[in-house]
Amino acid sequence: MVTAASIGSRVESLASSGISTIPKEYVRPKEELISIGDIFEDEKSTEGSHVPTIDLKEIDSEDIKVREKCREELKKAAVDWGVMHLVNHGISDELMDRVRKAGQAFFDLPIEQKENYANDQASGKIQGYGSKLANNASGQLEWEDYFFHCVYPEDKRDLSIWPQTPADYIVATSEYAKELRGLATKIMTILSLGLGLEEGRLEKEVGGLEELLLQMKINYYPKCPQPELALGVEAHTDVSALTWPSSSTTWFPACSSSTKTNG
């Protein structure tokens, strides 16, 4: 049931209310904000180290030397950084654009309509449309709304809470999940071999074909009147085996591969 209380709890509702000062629970400690800095400006700098870019074009090359060079670069990025920027990964720009547009179209819907897909964190139903609850001693909140759901395997999905609007949401997201699941197998295979294990070992350890879940979270960041004081997502450690972020201007879709089965 859509209530005034649920609508009022959304960051989007707060952002569109005309406020010029954000509530104190959204204001982050000064030391936290200083420590973050401007990662976008840092990335533009020619000084210092940068997140490695791994070109997967030659990951399955018939030339052994070319193939091994690509795989070694991926392994090194995983060991040294734990994060990397993948290019030529095999998922088409057209499909990724469809997923982005579908996610954006959902968040363009009126809040009242999005509330039809709301989750219920109090009862343990974490899938659906929601806003982050305070999870630290200070009771601070993040400046974001989101949509979260399991997208793979198909028999673990609950399509009843998937957006029916836009029309392409289910189709595009399902296709994307299948492609990403295949990429997850490829990456874990390379990492397994890099550790001196049999190629399917890592995937087996995190659930294998049947238990490894692919969960998708779309983060939406409404315009903030005091962006220098707030954070969309605070520093955290993902519990998933792999996380696949893809960014846009005001929203951020990310998929994670894990064995977590909360509904």
TrEMBL record:
Q: What is its EC number?
A: 1.14.11.19
Q: Does the keyword Oxidoreductase apply?
A: yes
Q: Which GO terms describe its molecular function?
A: L-ascorbic acid binding; metal ion binding; oxidoreductase activity
Question: Gene3D superfamilies in the record, alphabetically?
Answer: B-lactam Antibiotic, Isopenicillin N Synthase, Chain
SUPFAM superfamilies named in the record: Clavaminate synthase-like
- Which top-rank group of organisms is this from? Eukaryota
Q: What class of enzyme is it?
A: oxidoreductase
| Annotated Non-haem dioxygenase N-terminal domain residues | 51-164
**Keywords attached to this entry:** Iron, Metal-binding, Oxidoreductase, Vitamin C
Q: Which InterPro entries match?
A: DIOX_N, IPNS-like_FE2OG_OXY, IPNS-like_sf, Plant_2OG-oxidoreductases
Keyword Magnesium among UniProt keywords:
no
Isopenicillin N synthase-like Fe(2+) 2OG dioxygenase domain segment(s): 216-243
Q: Report what the protein is called.
A: Truncated anthocyanidin synthase
Organism lineage reads as: Eukaryota, Viridiplantae, Streptophyta, Embryophyta, Tracheophyta
